[in-house]
Specification:
single chain; about 120 residues; mainly beta; six-stranded mixed sheet; four-stranded antiparallel sheet; 10 strands; about 45% strand
Length: about 120
Amino acid sequence: QVQLVESGGDLVQPGGSLRLSCSASGSIYRTYAMAWFRRTSGERRQLVARITSAGTPFYEDSSVEGRFIISRDGARNTIYLQMNDLQPADTGVYYCNSQTELWSWGQGTQVTVSS
């Protein structure tokens, strides 16, 4: 069972930046497409960005394209989400998982964008 640990969330002002990290146990992690999900209050998790095992990124939420960058470091079993020009609509709890949500969810990391 892969364990996922997210970190890097914070309270930032609009226009600010954050870098989220997700570390995963288990070498099988390296063969899976991974993704970042966001859950806002009262809603289910939504896929924000995903990255193939080869490192090709896709942004499922068009509002983040050009502002967010998803990447992965196979040697560290870690994926990242660089978040630039943050807006209040980006507020939520961010989670990582395989693209097909194979594993148990971690605790997530809270991102709050507010002035």
